Amino acid sequence: MTQDFDASKGQEGLEDHYEQWFAHIATDFRATSLNRLVLGLVPPGRVLDIGCGSGALSAELLRAGRMVTSQDVSERMVAMTRMHLDRQGLDAGHVRLGTIESITERGTFDGIVALDVIEHIEDDYAALVRLREALAPNGTLVLSVPALTWLYGPKDVAVGHFRRYDRDGLSALLARAGFRLERCRYWNALGIAPVWLANLRGKRLDESLRYSNSPVKRSLNAALSAWFRFVENPLPMPLGMTLLVRARLE
Hints:
This protein has 250 residues and is α/β, with parallel strands linked by helices. 40% of the residues lie in helices and 20% in strands.
């Protein structure tokens, strides 16, 4: 499902979301839990983290020994990534500004990670083709997208999503772009009901617990972290807020 919206406002909303989250980069249950899964899917070698956001995943990949190029379309995100890597004592020399279309490498990267990226691009097929061109032979694409088209709602509009995806549609899109699907799983089943209820009210889900330092909200964040670590991450879910994919070149 798609919806007309002001793309510039969507980008601004996304940047505001990341900036609010930046102070909690090490403890946010969603990002830390998803990054654990992603690390197990990314091959060794040279990796492009496209849409690097605040730099949390780039930092984990660097610590795991990958040679990482971090890229984002937003100057604010690039600045945050550099700041985060510097704070962690990691190399921030390969952080750059640019769109998928501006990637100059061809047949270069052993892996490309694009977490919550292609839903922000109107022509998602062309974006995937460009990522395919940047991969080395037998290269790996790790991709996450917002799942379940019927959940498209106010938050999607606010952060600039053109669409959400269903499993079959995403699989077909990847195949058309020249990828062979290896893994595809839903993730974050807990989020479905709250987002659906918020959509019914025409409201964006209140996610302030992710950014609060109150004792109650810290405890809830810790409980959710445990849920993802011991339940959601190791066990496949029949549905979820996110689709996580690993695919290789055909």
